[in-house]
Amino acid sequence: MPRKSIITISLLVLIAVIYVLLIQSKVLAQQTIFNVPSADVLDKGQIFLQHESQFSGDFGLFTNYSAYGIGKHTELDITLFGVGTKKIRNEVLGIGFKTSIPIHEKSETKLTFGNLIPISLRGDGVGGYTYSHISTRLPKINTRITSGVFVGTTLLFGRDFVSFIAGIEQPITKRFGIIMDWYSGKHAYGFLTPGFYYLCPKNTTLWAGYQISNNRANGNNGFVIELSRIF
Predict the structure, then answer these.
(1) Which of 3, 157, 178, 192 has an alpha carbon within 20 to 30 A of 212's alpha carbon?
(2) Residue 13 φ/ψ, nearest 5 degrees
(3) Which domains does the chain have, with CATH numbers?
(4) Strand 191-200 to strand 161-171: parallel, antiparallel, or no bridges (unpaired)?
C-alpha cells in the first residue's frame, strides 16, 4: 500500500472519530502489552502514564505514553517516540485514539481498533499507523489471547508495512503474570518480546522483557523495561 494512501486513511479515520465524539459530547484508549496495543481501555476520567526504556548493545531508546479515558470504551493518546542515543534518536510525537467493541462480557471478548498520527519533531513529515485486533480470555486458566493486523509507515517503522500482531497475557498470581507479544515482518517493530509484569501498590505496574528480532535488519535483541501508573 502506498505511503500517501496509508497516511490519508489514518488522517481520515482520526478526523471521523473525533468528529463523532464531539457531536455526541461524549467520547469513546493507547496502552500496550509490550509493543502490541493492549485490549485494555481506560475508564472515563482515568489517566494513564507510562515510560518505556529499550536497551540493546551500545544504545538506549525511550518512549513516553499518556492516555485519557473519555468513555464509551475509548481513550485518547499522546505518545513521544524516539528519544534516544545519537545513533538512533528520531523524536516523533504521536496523537491518536483506541476504542473497543465488547462482544462477550464474561469472556472479555472484544474487537479493538486504534489509530495514531505520528508527527516528526525533526522536520521529517507526518506518518500514520492503524491497527485492529480481537481478544478473549480462556476459561479457568484466565489467559488472554490477542491477534490482529497492524499497518504502519516509514516515519516510525523504517518502511511502509502490513504486519500480523499477536499477544498472550497469563496471570500467575493477583500481582504477577507473564506476557508476550509479536509483530511479524521486517521493520523496526519486528520483534518477539517475552517477559512479565508486576502490579505494585498505588495503581503502578512494572513490565520487563527481552526483545528478539525477526531479522537482523530489524535491529539488535535487547531488554525492555516499562513503568506505568493509572490516576
Answers:
(1) 3
(2) -65, -45
(3) 3-230 (2.40.160.40)
(4) unpaired
